[in-house]
Design brief:
Distance between the termini: 68 Å
Number of helices: 13
Number of domains: 4
Strand order of the largest sheet: 1-2-3-4-5
CATH superfamily of the largest domain: Reverse transcriptase/Diguanylate cyclase domain
Radius of gyration: 31 Å
Structural class: alpha+beta
Mean pLDDT: 83
């Protein structure tokens, strides 16, 4: 079928086999609304950094018609992005990519994205599984020297912040633990326990002072007198002479042998036979015994039957079906007041407050704010225990009373919630402001609750 290249207000379109393709040549040309009008996208010749940015923009959408959109490229020179693209074209003969796009579009219609979990980890996992289902392909690692773990998983990495490689592995492990995927082991990696980087230099060091300035020397065993010492003690010009009996050692295996090696440290002069092994992290500079490194598996992943069922029918479980229980602001204030009174004896409770930036809530209408408020409550609820108390003042302010938590435990939980709320909200906004601000206080007798009015 004849394909036509059209230009519309500086935008390029290609029609092939009854499908409409949008050709993008720069990041500036990207608009989500334009992608909704076409069947597939072709990325033109652009810098690798711009290509990666465009893929992130598309894949981070919450609309399946966008994040699962067939994307092709005119360049085939970047194997690290091979999973991010659905194929390649020369813009002359597009029959092949049109047929492939048609198959993908048919399977996108089968994906049920109306029922998805609130938390970031499972939403990300659902997107990855939907991508695998619509492409009918495995998720396999690609070696990448620029990745913190030495491997890349391009589609799911486009959903995460740069350098979140271990987060990626944990999300995929979640799919494995829940029986949504099957795996085949490809490799095992060791990463720094400080920054989770894989760029490590392994080196032998002195067991006494940890210096790398050590020298290995052969031990010499003289058969005739049974004397054993480092080879330096036997050196006599170009010959070997036993320092104990003055005999010349001419033939190895007849006069002597070299049974082992002795190390000497040039810093502390300690002598030893077995050196220690340390890993030096190039990224953060931490030195660590190899036994303390983090070990992770690198796998190839395939959708299980249960995983396919979830993609088609939606991720709905008992927790997602529950009514999101939270206290009225008045009752929450009473319960917090009782906890403040109880804290005069002893308390392990922490009061937490989350504020959503006004720029997020203001554009929403009344119904939109109510829906947004329910979604945020559902997300927060998934991170707190059944004994914790949750309340909200409006679509911007949310309160939690964490029971039986130290300040450190509450701080960690608060950071996770704040990060994941920010991540979910930021996917739909271009603003770089702090979208979610969490604060917390130990519940004590001098805690003030006026801001709950």
């Amino acid at each position: 079928m004849l394909q036509v290249l059209k230009h519309n207000q500086a935008k390029q379109y290609i029609e092939s086999q009854g499908l409409k393709f949008l050709v993008l040549s720069s990041v500036a040309e990207y608009e989500a609304a334009l992608l909704k009008e076409v069947d597939a996208v072709i990325l033109g010749d652009m810098e690798q950094r711009d290509t990666a940015q465009l893929l992130k923009e598309v894949r981070r959408s919450r609309d399946k018609q966008l994040y699962l959109k067939p994307i092709f490229s005119v360049m085939k020179n970047d194997p690290s992005n091979s999973e991010g693209f659905d194929g390649f074209t020369d813009l002359i003969s597009n029959k092949g990519i049109a047929e492939k796009a048609r198959k993908i579009l048919a399977k996108i219609d089968e994906v049920n994205s109306k029922v998805v979990p609130h938390d970031f980890e499972r939403q990300t996992l659902f997107k990855q599984m939907a991508f695998m289902y619509t492409r009918d392909q495995l998720l396999g690692p690609i070696t990448d020297r620029y990745s913190k773990i030495g491997y890349a998983f391009p589609f799911i990495e486009s959903l995460l912040t740069d350098g979140a490689s271990l987060t990626l592995i944990n999300i995929l492990k979640l799919g494995l633990d829940q029986g949504l995927m099957t795996t085949k082991l490809v490799d095992k990696i060791h990463t720094c326990n400080e920054c989770q980087g894989n760029y490590l230099n392994f080196r032998e060091v002195c067991p006494k002072c940890s210096s790398v300035d050590i020298v290995a020397k052969d031990l010499v065993h003289h058969f005739k007198c049974a004397h054993v010492d480092v080879i330096d003690k036997f050196q006599n010009g170009d010959e070997l002479t036993c320092p104990k009996c003055d005999s010349k050692l001419r033939h190895i295996g007849i006069d002597y042998d070299k049974p082992s090696t002795m190390y000497s440290c040039n810093d502390c002069h300690h002598q030893f036979q077995d050196s220690d092994m340390q890993a030096f992290c190039i990224d953060c500079g931490k030195e660590e015994d190899t036994a303390n490194l983090l070990e992770s598996e690198i796998n190839t992943y395939a959708l299980s039957e249960r995983g396919e069922h979830l993609v088609i029918n939606g991720w709905e479980n008992e927790q997602d079906n529950q009514h999101i229980e939270h206290l009225s602001l008045e009752l929450f204030r009473i319960m917090l007041g009782l906890e403040i009174q109880r804290s005069k004896a002893s308390s392990r409770s922490v009061f937490v407050k989350f504020d959503i930036h006004q720029s997020v809530v203001s554009p929403l209408g009344k119904e939109g704010r109510e829906q947004f408020q329910r979604e945020i409550l559902g997300i927060v609820k998934s991170y707190v225990a059944a004994t914790d108390l949750l309340s909200t003042k409006n679509a911007q302010e949310y309160f939690i009373l964490l029971n039986d938590n130290t300040l450190e435990e509450a701080q960690e939980k608060c950071q996770i919630i704040e990060h994941n709320l920010t991540k979910l909200i930021a996917d739909n906004l271009t603003t770089k402001e702090d979208l979610v601000l969490g604060s917390l206080q130990q519940v004590t007798s001098d805690l003030k609750v006026e801001h709950l009015t």
